Amino acid sequence: MKPGETKPTWRKPVGILALFIALLVYAVIVAGLSTPIGQLPVLVQTPIYIVLGTIWLVPLRRYLIWMETGRWG
Question: What is the pLDDT, as a whole number, of residue 31?
Fold first, then answer.
């Protein structure tokens, strides 16, 4: 290896696969909630879907740091 290069780790491919699976599971859960949410007035549905559409981003930063460095913070 040349100076300045880093050795590839298992964290990135495993992390990407785990992230994909987790987002797929989350999407299925949210889709399952679409019937009860769909019965609410549109002005109530909108903030619910905004929150559900962005809440998955909360743990993403630490997860991406772990994929890159191996540390959670």
Answer: 94
6 inside domain = no
The pLDDT tens digits of the residues spanning 34-43 come to 999 999 999 9
Tell me if 23 is assigned to some domain: yes
What is the residue whose two structure tokens read 């999407």?
27
First-to-final CA distance of the chain: 28
The CA R_g of the chain, rounded to the nearest whole Å, is 18
**For the CA atoms of 64, 65, 67, 70, what is the dihedral angle to 10 degrees?**
-160
Distance CA 60, CA 20 (A): 12
Would you say residue 56 lies in a domain? yes
Count how many domains the chain has.
1
